[in-house]
């Protein structure tokens, strides 16, 4: 079973993703409400996949992605972006994000992206 | 515990978080209102709106999502430039109207109604504001542009060309490689096709050489996604990987609709094939795409200042449950340690252990209580907004001074205090504070002042709303009360306080005119009811021409109190320790009896009335002689009396339970409690007893 960490500052989003992932047979091993926490937890949990929101307090998703890549984190990283954040998505993809999801997302799309990692 | 109807947990979370975010937003604005909107708060508001937008779009509340998006755009613009002349007043109005809109919609959603309000007008306002901002701040605009044009120099990324380039076996591979052309089409729901295409480029890069693609500017130009939508995404590459393997890679593309893969003539090298392609490819050399990306450190250091304490959200009903359990624990502890079966036994070790148990239950109770304690600051801050909005609408200059907002009260109280406070402040602004002209005439400062204060006083919290307005007019109140048939006494016999208290009666409103904010006639008695629900008391004081002070007194904790258990006949009663001043065994000769037969006792030169519990509650007891029983002096704001009981049984923590409905609610009982031996004890309401006594005294006259 794939182990996933969900990073988003909105508790609602974390919950919605978590429910969707667990329904589809993924294991959500951790949650983080900002990039800083995400970086700390990623080290400890070493998840297979990290879903990463972009706009967050303390440390945004892009910086977190950069940091994770710098410390050699092996987790696959999926950026969760809102519409209109194209430039951030681009930056994230260049920095090595594995894929991205656009909010508001639909369940089959998320599942497709995850299955094709 | 309140009956909780089960709702979709997602919806519940959505409502909960949205409300929390809005509250946070109001907090940010109110704390920054006086100064110009700071960078920090702009970032925070942007983020909050961004989150609300995202959450709402997920829940398909599109009107909320679009409105939040509009505001997000506005703040996104604001945080990118440095604007000098931001009309923060107007900006704050915009934000507040959005907050109100969303709150209204959330309310509907909570009520299981359709969230269907049209945000068009508000959207228009925001768009106009943004337009104004863009026009009036040409300086800001250039600044903005400068930032944008800055970024190509900042950092550069390269897509490494094929992995094997520079490899020593490259030459060999070259020979067995086949040239391919692939065209990929994406599904319609795809979004950001250029970035999806980029993922394909990345995976092809792993296994191929000389990768080129059309459109070539997928990384620099978001418009390229339009091209991809129409014409597909074309890839040219050279690889030795089998077609099945290629198929796997392409099939693994997210949102792939279909793709075409064709071999190019083998001898035809991509270099030579290039000219045959459209002009698009012309200047793209083998170095491939050079990508410039803005390395945007939008997470400025400013936001790191706003570190939040780590905390979790707990449902209030869980806390209620915990509180109930602690209550039960306190009772059980008493049941064990004061078990009648233990009487007369020599139990040194048991007593030691019991003391330890008592200490721990005590600590536990303190902790549980403190969990429920919340500072009043949020509630008080809300009043700031109210005063601000209202002073604009009714055109009175009013300043709100907040004192002691850090005072903590039970969460339950917070929930019930907000509405009454709002009402009181509205009243003060509407009826209390005079118009500016009138104030100047009366030699008062032009600006009215309302003080909202909270402080601890013994076991109570006092919340005081004080204005420096015209004060209450006794005459008007009396006339009005007569008109409505609310008094049946001679006004001359009434004290000032009693007259003022008339305004709390149902159906009373002194202002003839009804305004938008107050004076609908249902006001004050609703306030009283709300306050009574949390066992609070409300009182008014007023000086004509100088202002009105309304004091709300709320018991600090609702559930567990220190009580003195007394016995009268076969029953036990509990008196809250906080109201006891002393207890003593009186002598027969100290008692004075007045003409009506009321007993009094003279202590240190002052006489105190005596209330015999056995008479008051018609309990049979053998102890009727004053020298055989005990007197307990209790006090409240209204005065002091001495309660006569058979004997004191001891001090104990008791859990206050409401009186069952079938017991005729009496003014002088505040509840009941379960004692250690399983018997029930009634809790005396000291203030009620004193009030009762005074009433009786007046009736006798």
From TrEMBL, chain A:
Entries under Gene3D superfamilies matching the protein: 3.40.50.2300
GO biological process, one term: phosphorelay signal transduction system
Residue span, Response regulatory domain: 3-117
Signal peptide: none
Keywords: Phosphoprotein
Record flagged with keyword Phosphoprotein: yes
Pfam families reported for this sequence: Response_reg (PF00072)
Modified residues (4-aspartylphosphate): 53
General function of this protein: May play the central regulatory role in sporulation. It may be an element of the effector pathway responsible for the activation of sporulation genes in response to nutritional stress. Spo0A may act in concert with spo0H (a sigma factor) to control the expression of some genes that are critical to the sporulation process.
Protein name: Stage 0 sporulation protein A homolog
Organism: Marinisporobacter balticus
UniProtKB/TrEMBL annotation, chain B:
Domain HPt: 3-109
Record-annotated CheW-like domain positions: 560-695
CDD domains: HATPase_CheA-like, HPT
InterPro entries xrefs: Bact_Chemotaxis_CheA, CheA-like_dim, CheA-like_homodim_sf, CheA-like_P2_sf, CheA_P2-bd, CheW-like_dom_sf, CheW-lke_dom, CheY-binding_CheA
Subcellular location: Cytoplasm
Residues bearing PTM Phosphohistidine: 50
Origin: domain of life: Bacteria
GO molecular function: ATP binding; phosphorelay sensor kinase activity
GO biological process per UniProt: chemotaxis
Domain Histidine kinase: 354-558
EC number: 2.7.13.3
Location (main, coarse): cytoplasm
Keywords assigned: ATP-binding, Chemotaxis, Cytoplasm, Kinase, Nucleotide-binding, Phosphoprotein, Transferase, Two-component regulatory system
Enzyme class: transferase
Described purpose of this protein according to its UniProt entry: Involved in the transmission of sensory signals from the chemoreceptors to the flagellar motors. CheA is autophosphorylated; it can transfer its phosphate group to either CheB or CheY.
PANTHER family named among the record's database cross-references: CHEMOTAXIS PROTEIN CHEA, SENSOR HISTIDINE KINASE CHEA
Name listed for the protein in its UniProt record: Chemotaxis protein CheA
Record organism: Marinisporobacter balticus
Organism lineage string: Bacteria, Bacillati, Bacillota, Clostridia, Peptostreptococcales
């Amino acid at each position: 079973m794939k182990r996933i960490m969900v990073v988003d500052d909105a508790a609602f989003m974390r919950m919605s993703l978590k429910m969707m992932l667990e329904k589809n047979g993924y294991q959500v091993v951790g949650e983080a409400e900002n990039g800083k926490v995400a970086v700390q937890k990623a080290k400890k949990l070493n998840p297979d996949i990290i879903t990463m929101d972009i706009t967050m307090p303390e440390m945004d998703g892009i910086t977190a992605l950069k940091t994770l890549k710098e410390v050699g984190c092996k987790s696959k990283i999926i950026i969760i972006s809102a519409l209109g954040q194209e430039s951030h998505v681009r930056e994230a993809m260049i920095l090595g994000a594995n894929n991205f999801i656009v909010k508001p997302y639909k369940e089959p799309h998320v599942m497709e992206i995850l299955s094709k990692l | 515990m309140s009956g909780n109807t089960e709702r979709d947990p997602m919806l519940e979370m959505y409502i909960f978080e949205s409300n929390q975010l809005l509250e946070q937003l109001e907090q940010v604005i109110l704390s920054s209102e006086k100064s110009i909107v700071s960078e920090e708060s702009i970032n925070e508001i942007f983020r909050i709106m961004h989150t609300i937008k995202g959450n709402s779009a997920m829940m398909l509340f599109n009107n909320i999502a679009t409105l939040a998006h509009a505001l997000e755009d506005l703040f996104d613009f604001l945080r990118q430039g440095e604007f000098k002349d931001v009309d923060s007043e107007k900006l704050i109005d915009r934000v507040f109207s959005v907050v109100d809109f969303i709150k209204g919609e959330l309310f509907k959603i909570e009520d299981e109604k359709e969230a269907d309000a049209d945000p068009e007008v508000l959207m228009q306002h925001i768009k106009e504001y943004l337009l104004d901002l863009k026009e009036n701040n040409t300086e800001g605009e250039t600044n903005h542009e400068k930032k944008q044009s800055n970024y190509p120099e900042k950092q550069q990324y390269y897509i490494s060309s094929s992995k094997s380039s520079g490899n020593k076996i490259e030459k060999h591979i070259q020979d067995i490689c086949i040239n391919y052309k692939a065209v990929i089409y994406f599904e319609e729901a795809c979004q950001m096709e250029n970035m999806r295409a980029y993922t394909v480029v990345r995976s092809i890069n792993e296994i191929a050489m000389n990768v080129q693609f059309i459109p070539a500017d997928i990384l620099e130009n978001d418009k390229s996604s339009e091209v991809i939508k129409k014409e597909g995404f074309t890839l040219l590459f050279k690889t030795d990987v089998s077609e099945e393997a290629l198929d796997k890679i392409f099939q693994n593309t997210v949102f792939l609709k279909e793709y075409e893969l064709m071999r190019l003539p083998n001898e035809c090298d991509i270099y030579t094939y290039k000219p045959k392609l459209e002009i698009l490819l012309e200047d793209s050399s083998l170095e491939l795409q050079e990508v410039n990306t803005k390395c945007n450190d939008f997470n400025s250091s400013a936001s790191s200042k706003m570190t939040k304490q780590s905390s979790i959200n707990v449902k209030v009903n869980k806390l209620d449950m915990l509180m109930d359990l602690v209550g039960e624990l306190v009772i059980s502890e008493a049941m064990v340690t004061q078990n009648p079966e233990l009487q007369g036994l020599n139990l040194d070790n048991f007593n030691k252990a019991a003391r330890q148990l008592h200490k721990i239950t005590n600590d536990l109770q303190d902790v549980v209580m403190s969990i429920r304690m919340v500072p009043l600051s949020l509630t008080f801050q809300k009043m700031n907004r109210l005063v601000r909005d209202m002073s604009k609408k009714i055109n009175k200059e009013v300043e709100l001074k907040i004192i002691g907002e850090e005072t903590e009260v039970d969460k339950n109280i917070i929930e019930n205090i907000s509405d009454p406070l709002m009402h009181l402040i509205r009243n003060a602004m509407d009826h209390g504070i005079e118009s500016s002209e009138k104030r100047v005439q009366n030699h008062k400062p032009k600006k009215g002042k309302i003080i909202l204060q909270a402080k601890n006083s013994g076991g109570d919290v006092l919340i005081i709303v004080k204005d420096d307005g015209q004060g209450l007019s006794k005459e008007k109140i009396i006339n009005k009360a007569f008109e409505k048939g609310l008094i049946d006494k001679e006004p001359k016999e009434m004290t000032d306080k009693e007259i003022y208290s008339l305004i709390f009666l149902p159906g009373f409103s002194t202002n003839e005119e009804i305004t938008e904010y107050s004076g609908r006639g249902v006001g004050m008695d609703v306030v009283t009811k709300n306050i009574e629900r949390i066992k609070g008391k409300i009182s008014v004081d007023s000086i004509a021409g100088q202002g009105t002070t309304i004091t709300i007194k709320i018991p600090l904790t609702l559930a567990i109190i220190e009580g003195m258990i007394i016995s009268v006949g076969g029953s036990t009663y509990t008196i809250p320790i906080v109201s006891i001043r002393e207890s003593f065994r009186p002598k027969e000769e100290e008692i004075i009896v007045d003409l009506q037969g009321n007993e009094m006792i003279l202590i240190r030169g002052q006489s105190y009335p005596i209330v015999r519990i056995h008479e008051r509650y018609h309990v049979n007891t053998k102890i009727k002689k004053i020298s055989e029983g005990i007197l307990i002096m209790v006090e409240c704001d209204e005065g002091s009396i001495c309660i006569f009981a058979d004997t004191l049984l001891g001090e104990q923590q008791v859990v206050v339970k409401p009186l069952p409905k079938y017991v005729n609610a009496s003014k002088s009982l505040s509840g009941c409690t379960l004692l250690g031996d399983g018997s029930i004890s009634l809790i005396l309401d000291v203030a009620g007893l004193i009030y009762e006594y005074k009433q009786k005294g007046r009736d006798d006259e």
